[in-house]
Amino acid sequence: MTGTRDTDAIRLEVVEEAWPIAGAFRIARGSKTEARVVVVTLHQAGHTGRGEAVPYARYGETMEGVLAEVASLADDLNRGLSRDALQSRLHPGAARNAVDCALWDLEAKRSGQRAWALAGLGRLDPVKTAYTLSLDTPDAMAAAARAAAGRPLLKLKIGAPDDLDKVEAVRGAAPRTRLIVDANEALDIETLNRLAPDFARLGVKMIEQPLPAGQDAALADYRGEVPLCADESLHSRAELEACAGLYHAINIKLDKTGGLTEALALREAARARGLMIMAGCMVATSLAMAPALLIAQGAEVVDLDGPLLLAKDRVPGLSILGSMIEPPPAELWG
User: How many domains is the chain built from?
Assistant: First the structure.
C-alpha cells in the first residue's frame, strides 16, 4: 500500500485578508488605501506553517486568480508536495510565494530549527529598512520627508518626467538622509539622461526601474552616474542574464520570485554576476516581511517597510524600532 499517512498529510487553508494603510499609498500607476493579501496556512501533524503574498495587477494577477491557484494545490500538498516540486508546479508570482513561504515555516516548526538555519545561514541579523514616501505634491512629499528625516534611507516615488521638483523638495526637507528614487517605469531614456545629473547633485544613491519593463535595452545608452536597480524587469533567474549588463542592482521581492526558495537562488546568482541586492516588498504585514529578512542579510539596500505603512499590523509582528527590524519571533514565521 502506498500513499501519505493521514498523520503526515498536509491540510491547506487559504484566505483573503485586508489591512488598512495609514493614509494612502500612491505610485505612478495609482493609489490604494488597504493592503489585500493572501494568507496560506498549512497544517501537518499538529504543526502549522504560514505564508503571505500580495496579488499584483501589474503582473496580471487578481485576488480571485491567486486564491484559485493556491486552492488547486490542495491534493498535491496532501500527497506531500515538496518545495522543490512546487517550483515547477506554479509559475513565479504571489500564489507560489504564499505556499513556498508556508512550507518553509512548516518545515521550521516540524524540525525545531529556525528557517534561516535550514537555509544555511548561521544567524539572522537585524537590518535597517528604507521608508517609502508615496507620490504626492512637492509640498506634501516635503512634509512627509520632514517627519521621516531621522530615518537613514528614504525611497521616494516619482511618476512623470517633470517630477524633479518632488526630489528637490524631499532633499530640502531631509538634507542628511540617503535617497532612492523609484520611477515605477515612468521615464524614457532621454528623460533619464536629462535628470541623472540632477539626481546625482541631490545625492540620490539609486534609481529604481526608470524605464518600462521590456525597454531595458535602451539603458545601454544610460550616461548617468547614479546606479540603476531593476524591479519590474526582473522577477526570477529567468530574467537575470538580460538585466545583468544594464542594471547595477536588482530588487528581489518574494511576490515576484514566487517565494523564498527562488529568491535565495536568485540572490546567489546575482552576487555571482557582481550585482548589488535590494531586498524589497509589497505593502503587506510582518508575515510577508519575515521570510524576506533572509534575503536582506548583507543586502546593499533593504526596503521592507510594508508594516510601517499600515495602520495596524499582526500580533505578534516584527519588532521595528525606528528603521531597525529585528529577526521574527517563531510565533510569527520561521
Answer: 2
* Tally of CB atoms within 10 A around 48: 15
Q: What is the Cβ-side half-sphere exposure of residue 126, based on CA atoms within 13 angstroms? A: 10
Per the structure, the complete domain to which residue 11 belongs is given by 6-115
Does the active-site annotation cover 157?
yes
Choose the catalytic residue: 109, 155, 157, 256. 157
| CB-based contact 133:156 (threshold 8 Å) | yes
> Does 128 participate in catalysis according to the annotation?
no
**Could you say which of 109, 155, 166, 253 is catalytic?**
253
> Do 146 and 282 share a domain, yes or no?
yes
Give bridge partners of residue 153 from the DSSP assignment: 178
With a CB cutoff of 8 Å and minimum separation 6, the contacts of 229 are: 180, 206, 207, 208, 209, 247, 248, 249, 250, 251, 276, 278, 301
Q: Can you give the pTM of this predicted structure?
A: 0.94
pLDDT digits (tens, 9 = 90+) for 50-67: 999 999 999 999 999 999
What CATH number does residue 152 fall under?
3.20.20.120
In the structure grid, which three cell numbers stand for residue 147, read together? 517627519
Domain boundary among 85, 115, 145: 115
Same-domain status, 243 and 193: yes
At residue 5, the pLDDT reads 46
Tens digits of residue pLDDT in 104-124: 999 999 999 999 999 999 999
